Amino acid sequence: MPDFIAEWLNQNEIFTAMTIMEYWDGMVTTVHLVFLSLVIGLLVAVPLAILRTVRNPFVSGPVWLYTYLFRGTPLLIQLYIIYYGLAQIEGIQETFWWEIFREPFYPALLAFTLNTAAYTTEIIRGAIISTPNGEIEAAKAYGMNWFMRMRRIVLPSAARRAVQAYSNEVIFMLHASAIASVVTIVDLTGAARNIYSRFYAPFDAFIFVALCYMALTFILVFAFRKLETHLLKHQRPVNG
Amino acid sequence: MKKMIFAASCALALIAGGAQAQERDLRIAFDVPYEPFEYKDENGELTGFEVELAEAMCEEMNANCEFVIQAWDGMIPGLLARKFDLIMSSMSITPERAERVLFSEPYYNTPGGWFGPESFNSDVTDMDAMEGKTVGVQRGTTMDTYVTENMGGIVNIKRYTTADDMVLDLEGQRLDVVFVDYPVGEQTVLTKEGFKEVGEPVKLGQGVGVAMRQRDTELAEEVNAALRTLKEDGTYDTIMQKYFAYDIKM
Questions:
Q1: Nearest-CB residue to A84 (from B73, B100, B172)
Q2: Which residues cross the membrane (chain A) (predicted)?
């Protein structure tokens, strides 16, 4: 370790090896929570988005209602309802569900997943309905049935159109995960709050955690830029 | 003679007027609800032990006081940013806090109390029995420090911003036991059915003081003088007896 960093670490009271470890554990929790909710959310969102584009209102209606409810209310309220609401259900403490929902991690994961799935559903639906008619007609002319059309034509081109909007959703989700600390999860923000309350140094504690979130965001932006260049290769000029 | 009396009374009125204008404005911050120290009654009026003590103190100091509601997390930053001048919100005197703010002499001290469900029958001082239990505390309180230092790594500590959220999780059985300021636990946990005190109260810290900005040393002297008068002339005891059945005077 360079001397000046060692010296600085020795002089200040806040950034000791112990608090750095707390921040690190918090970062692991944040990444864990956000990653899981995004993956599950995406897996749920793709079929929902397809159902949402179906003409039959009995199929698309419930999906519309779900996305409307979860996009129409704040994530914090959804988290409160799931975290405190589940504990109020009569007799839930005696069922095996309580093993899962006793810990704050799973209620938070459930709230985040439902929330991001609602937004992602709408993003993918937008991409699906903007598929050029000509592509679908051509697929029909080739004799592809609905399933094959979805798999080979609609979803791959929709994925290309959705990736930019989806990268925003991923970054919003990372930032929104800061509210996990209100239900006692020690994520990055929770670690910062604990350290702040121990040393009463809000600037040091929160600026450091802001830098951590920024570093994570940069990684995400970089990864999505790579993904976009890869997916949209066909749109670049030949000699570009 | 009449003229002189008139002139004198004019002068007196001027002096009195001057004194009136000099009456200082003070803003005092509370974090509500923290029963019975500061909370809103059924009419929405701010009341409680510390609120009444603050009112008496302001009268004693001849100050014009305004009460500000501030969440606990932002207390010290709000004081330093001059959003208010005094904190009278059950802030325990600790060395870490004393580096940021100036404390008056302590004006009360209450122990920390252990509260849990009727079914809880472990000894809270027996570390083997407590191992793996989930304990709720309010973040950054002397109770938090006590549990972190004495039981960290043995019990699973959950930290809350407000006592209400913590009690909700105790009722929801997410917590086995809470360690909270005794009067707060008495008002929030013991009033609910199925809960009891599960251990001996623990004396913590150096008591609660009024917090001010470090540079306001003159104000601190006035506050100390006012508090001393209130403690001696019986006003303090009258207010205390309204809220507590036991002695918290310091």
A1: B172
A2: 31-51, 63-85, 170-193, 205-224
